[in-house]
């Protein structure tokens, strides 16, 4: 001990002797400067990791004299091109109330406006999921249900008890399809209706953030998503100040479980799996993600916005559907749209949670408002009771047998479309579609030029990137026209093969250029400019 103490004294004396030559101010400033440099380097490294070195360099170049002006002019050209004549429509919009009300005559104006919409029947990817015309059959039924309750608002539960009861039943019936009756679910599945998949996702993310903050004290939350996860998760991240860790998909275009695992850290609040993902119609490995979530005690949200009213029935019909619902250990929340394959009116979705302890973090309660005590379950305060009634009517009128029948029809047509695309020389299907979304690309022709030709024939498909591709989301609208789709697709590919190059008015050059631009910030600015000039 004495030897150690003597050594310490010698080292102390040597250090003091060496530092004595410096000014006291230097001795104080040096470590502070070193700390500042270290923090600057750390911030720079974090910026490179988040944005990429190329994006940072391009951002610096934009600051050069003349460059920003040139870029602004070029962006305006692109936005004008994307508008495709929409400016004239915007200029003709009403900006003031009519001096004298139109009364019943307003219906004629509505009919004239509606007549200007494109012919959507059977021609759109997704969009309209109910078969037939909007003035007959199931359409007529849900429209009648909506009109009966168009004046109601579930915010006033004491007044509109019928709507509150219908919402509870829609949630319970949806939960029953997604594993609530399974013993492994825990028997406490609960949830609420929302305005659509995006709100369901926003609420699930917000709830997971607050739940994990109360459970683990996480104040700098992060969530892990596959690059195929819906853009609503990016919206949620912006709204709720959550860092996104985006993981590339694997060679099968599925969420990479090993990549997810590498991203988990002390700030991770949740992971996201899709069943199926919007771009390619593929079901992520939910069971493996559930094992990760359980092991690290984090939340796992399953996006069933597309699959919630198809996969349970496809499984009953014998299709090889991997596990996807609350029967999977580790799944803490699910979003499922009723207004898609649930055949309900637009603006109806359901968000579900494994138990009430989690869901409580979705609610907002205010105790200090002079207007009284206030509590709200979802993002919206007032909500349209007519939509709840429409969803309830849709589910009750279709029933289990009806959903089995519609699922059988659309799954059969989806497989026919998949086989038909695979038989077209020059095209390939991306992955192995589990459901009703079929994505396809080409190594022979510019797929966006093919899309332009298809658009000229009246089809409205979804353009994808990484890789450049298109997809069709098959609905009941397509069951009678799928042969026309395949014929037009074959003709469009042949046209592009014979005459490669963009067509007049086509969007292929813009889609192609956007996919290749290394500066994603500029692409984002283009999208924002386009949106700002459109609404």
TrEMBL record:
Its cofactor is pyridoxal 5'-phosphate. Keywords: Endoplasmic reticulum, Lipid metabolism, Lyase, Membrane, Pyridoxal phosphate, Signal-anchor, Sphingolipid metabolism, Transmembrane, Transmembrane helix. InterPro entries: GrpII_AminoAcid_Decarb, PyrdxlP-dep_de-COase, PyrdxlP-dep_Trfase, PyrdxlP-dep_Trfase_major, PyrdxlP-dep_Trfase_small. The keyword Membrane applies. Its EC number is 4.1.2.27. The modification N6-(pyridoxal phosphate)lysine is found at residue 340. It is found in: Endoplasmic reticulum membrane. The keyword rRNA processing does not apply. It comes from the Eukaryota. Pathway: Sphingolipid metabolism; Lipid metabolism; sphingolipid metabolism. It is an enzyme of class 4 (lyase). SUPFAM superfamilies: PLP-dependent transferases (SSF53383). Its main location: endoplasmic reticulum. GO terms for cellular component: endoplasmic reticulum membrane. One of its GO terms (molecular function) is sphinganine-1-phosphate aldolase activity. GO terms for biological process: sphingolipid metabolic process. Pfam families: Pyridoxal_deC. It is a single-pass type III membrane protein. Belongs to the group II decarboxylase family. Sphingosine-1-phosphate lyase subfamily. This is Sphingosine-1-phosphate lyase. It comes from Urochloa decumbens. The lineage of its organism: Eukaryota, Viridiplantae, Streptophyta, Embryophyta, Tracheophyta.
């Amino acid at each position: 001990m004495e030897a150690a103490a003597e050594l310490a004294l010698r080292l102390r004396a040597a250090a003091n002797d060496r530092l004595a030559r410096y000014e006291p101010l230097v001795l104080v400033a040096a470590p502070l400067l070193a700390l500042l440099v270290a923090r600057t380097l750390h911030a720079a490294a974090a910026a490179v990791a988040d944005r990429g070195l190329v994006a940072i360099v391009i951002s610096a170049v934009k600051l050069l004299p003349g460059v920003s002006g040139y870029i602004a002019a070029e962006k305006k050209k692109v936005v004008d091109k994307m508008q495709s004549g929409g400016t004239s429509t915007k200029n003709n919009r009403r900006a003031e109330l009519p001096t004298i009300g139109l009364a019943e005559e307003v219906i004629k104006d509505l009919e004239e406006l509606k007549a200007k919409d494109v012919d959507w029947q059977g021609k759109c990817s997704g969009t309209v999921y109910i078969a037939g015309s909007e003035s007959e059959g199931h359409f007529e039924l849900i429209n009648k249900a909506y009109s009966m309750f168009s004046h109601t608002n579930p915010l006033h539960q004491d007044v509109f008890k019928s709507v509150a009861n219908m919402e509870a039943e829609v949630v319970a019936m949806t939960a029953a399809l997604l594993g609530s009756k399974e013993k492994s679910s825990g028997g406490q599945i609960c949830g609420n209706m929302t305005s659509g998949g995006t709100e369901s996702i926003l609420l699930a993310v917000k709830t997971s953030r607050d739940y994990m903050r109360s459970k683990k004290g996480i104040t700098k939350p992060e969530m892990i998503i596959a690059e195929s996860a819906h853009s609503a998760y990016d919206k949620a991240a912006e709204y709720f100040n959550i860092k996104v860790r985006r993981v590339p998909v694997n060679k099968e275009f599925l969420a990479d479980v090993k990549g997810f695992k590498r991203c988990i850290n002390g700030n991770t609040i949740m992971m996201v799996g899709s069943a199926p993902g919007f771009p390619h119609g593929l079901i992520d490995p939910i069971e493996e993600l559930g094992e990760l979530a359980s092991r690290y005690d984090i939340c796992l949200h399953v996006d069933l916005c597309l699959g919630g009213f198809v996969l349970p029935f496809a499984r009953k019909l014998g299709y090889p559907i991997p596990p996807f619902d609350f029967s999977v250990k580790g799944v803490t929340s699910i979003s499922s749209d009723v207004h898609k394959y649930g055949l309900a009116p637009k603006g109806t979705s359901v968000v579900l949670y494994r138990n009430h302890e989690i869901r409580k973090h979705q609610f907002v309660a205010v105790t200090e408002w002079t207007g009284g005590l206030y509590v709200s379950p979802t993002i919206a305060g007032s909500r349209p009771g007519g939509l709840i009634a429409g969803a309830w009517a849709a589910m009750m009128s279709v029933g289990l047998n009806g959903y089995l029948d519609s699922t059988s029809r659309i799954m059969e047509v989806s497989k026919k479309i998949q086989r038909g695309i695979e038989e077209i020389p020059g095209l390939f299907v991306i992955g192995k579609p589990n459901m009703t979304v079929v994505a396809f690309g080409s190594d022979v022709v510019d797929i966006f030029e093919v899309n332009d030709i298809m658009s000229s024939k009246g089809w409205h498909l979804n353009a994808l990137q990484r890789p450049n591709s298109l997809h069709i989301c098959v609905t009941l609208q397509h069951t009678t026209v799928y042969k026309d789709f395949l014929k037009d697709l074959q003709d469009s590919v042949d046209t592009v093969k014979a005459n490669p190059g963009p067509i007049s008015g086509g969007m292929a050059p813009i889609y192609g250029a956007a996919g290749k631009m290394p500066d994603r910030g500029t692409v984002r600015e283009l999208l924002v400019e386009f949106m700002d000039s459109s609404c």
